[in-house]
From TrEMBL:
Protein name, entry field: DUF2231 domain-containing protein
Domain DUF2231: residue ranges: 4-135
Protein's organism: Paenibacillus psychroresistens
InterPro entries: DUF2231_TM
Keyword set includes Lipoprotein: no
Pfam families: DUF2231
Transmembrane segments: 6-27, 34-54, 80-99, 106-128
Lineage: Bacteria, Bacillati, Bacillota, Bacilli, Bacillales
UniProt-annotated stretches for the region Disordered: 135-160
Key words, A-Z: Membrane, Transmembrane, Transmembrane helix
Annotated signal peptide: none
Keyword presence, Transmembrane helix: yes
């Protein structure tokens, strides 16, 4: 069975892979093997990030249906940071490809700065995604609308 929305099932892969790729990139300063690990994790994280982004429209429609149009500000911020994350990690991967054989120190510094920025943007993307799911003004933490928290018993009593 495919979860609805699919975005919620996919999004954890790029978060985990890109985060571990950033850590591996920093560890590559210590041991070069971590550079290979970083490239692998960042590549798979980027691909799954594109998949998460492409499934975001379905999740957006679902969120607006469940929580109403009040969710739009959080959706816009979430999408902004998601796109920024993809752009940053595309630049990281491009630098890795361009300087695959020999990398000047300035490129290593740029990679680390981009990875730090990407770590920030993916954190913000997750923050706003979590805000929509768990802390929306239109929902309590159980996913029920606050306006309709009336129990079935109370509802039935009023109609008997």
């Amino acid at each position: 069975m495919i979860p609805e929305p699919l975005h919620a099932a996919i999004v954890h892969f790029p978060v985990a892979l890109l985060t571990m790729g950033v850590i591996a990139q920093f560890l590559s300063l210590w041991k070069n093997i971590f550079n290979t690990i970083a490239i692998f994790m960042l590549s798979i994280g980027f691909i799954t990030g594109i998949a998460a982004y492409l499934t975001g429209d379905g999740a957006e429609d679902f969120a607006e249906h469940v929580q109403g149009k009040d969710i739009n500000m959080l959706l816009e911020r979430h999408e902004f940071f998601a796109v920024a994350t993809l752009i940053i990690f595309a630049a990281v991967l491009a630098l890795h490809l361009i300087f695959l054989r020999r990398r000047p120190a300035i490129v290593t510094l740029l990679l680390l700065l981009l990875c730090a920025g990407g770590g920030f943007t993916i954190t913000m993307t997750g923050h706003y995604g979590g805000e929509m799911v768990y802390h929306s003004d239109s929902q309590d933490n159980t996913g029920n609308n606050e306006d309709s928290n009336e129990s079935e018993e109370d509802h039935d009593k009023g109609h008997n």
